[in-house]
Amino acid sequence: MWAVFKKELKTYFLSPIGYISIGIFMLMYSIFFYLTTISYGTVGMGDLYYATARYGLLLMVPLLTMRMFAEERKNGTEQLLLTSPRSVTSIVLGKFFAAVAVILITLVLSIIYAVIVSFFGNVNIPTLIVTMVGFLLVAMAAISIGMLTSSITENQIISAILTIVILVAPWFLVDMSSIFSSIDLIDKFSKFPSGLVSIADTVCLLSITVMCILITIILIKRRKAVK
């Protein structure tokens, strides 16, 4: 897994994808920093992370995940990957954690804004930490969904569109049935910006992450068995 992780992480930054993803995050974060923090003169950063999670991840996650397996299939290199000595599980986890590492980098960079705000008031550090942990959990769940869509198609654009649809659909379908609220990632994140750790929401986000990773592993293993 470590070898795959290093390879994937290096690939992100040897291509524009990693820089564009981080750039999108920082751009969205800066815009919402102005709209939610500077405009209202508040030192609370919960709304800032909530808005960035809601809209920033919609752009970041598809960029990070659309090429994970779709590119391998399109270029015909998937067979080489599947016949390597590494297990399918280690390959999937290596790719997953490489994308998560990019999110972690952006979160570290976002601390700069907390430092700026601290000059004008006291930043609630525990609440900030809880919010960032919640953001990471949402990002992990979204990445696992994007990875799953990438594993079922060889077209990167289709993978990106499917990821966006799956992430956005619950926002509009929740009025039709409450079942859709259980897969609304942003709804599961809503309590974290207030400094509240919801065990139910945490378990739900982790369950979605694990479930999508397991389904991805199963799909890849089946393709490997066929080949």
Features:
227 residues
How is this structure best described in words?
By secondary structure, the chain is mostly helical. The chain has one domain (2-226). Helices cover 78% and strands 0% of the residues. It has 10 helices and no strands. Helix 2 (16-38) runs parallel beside helix 6 and helix 7 runs parallel beside helix 10 (199-226). 36% of the residues are buried.
List the helices and strands and how they pair.
Blueprint: H1 2-14, H2 16-38, H3 46-65, H4 70-75, H5 78-82, H6 88-118, H7 125-151, H8 156-173, H9 185-189, H10 199-226
Helix pairs in contact: 1-2, 1-6, 2-3, 2-6, 3-7, 3-8, 6-7, 6-10, 7-8, 7-10
The domain tally reads: 1
How many helices does DSSP assign? 10
- Poorly predicted spans: none
Tell me the span between the first and last alpha carbons: 22 Å
Overall geometry: globular
The Cα radius of gyration reads 18 Å
SS class: mainly alpha
How large is the share of residues in beta strands?
A: under 5%
Main sheet overview: none
Nearest-integer average pLDDT: 87
Number-wise, the strands total 0
